[in-house]
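Work Package 3 (structural annotation) set out to generate three-dimensional models for the target panel prioritized at the project kickoff. During this period the team completed the workflow that converts sequence records into discrete structure tokens, so that structures can be stored uniformly alongside our sequence database. As a representative example, we reproduce one entry of 66 residues exactly as it appears in the project archive.
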Amino acid sequence: MNEEKLNQSVRKFLKQVGVTSQREIELAVRSASEDGTLPDGGLEVKVVLQCPDLGLEHEVKGQLEV
């Protein structure tokens, strides 16, 4: 296993996940705000990371303030 190659590819993947996730969340929040369906208070969020080849499933939950 090449540790450096793994590290670079993981970082690249996580950067893509972060950028696209932020864009999707912002679009959904704006849309809900515009049509009056944005709930008061925070928003519950959850990300599920899966790697079927390794049998990996990892869940991260959080709150977003709006």
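The longest strand covers residues 43-51.
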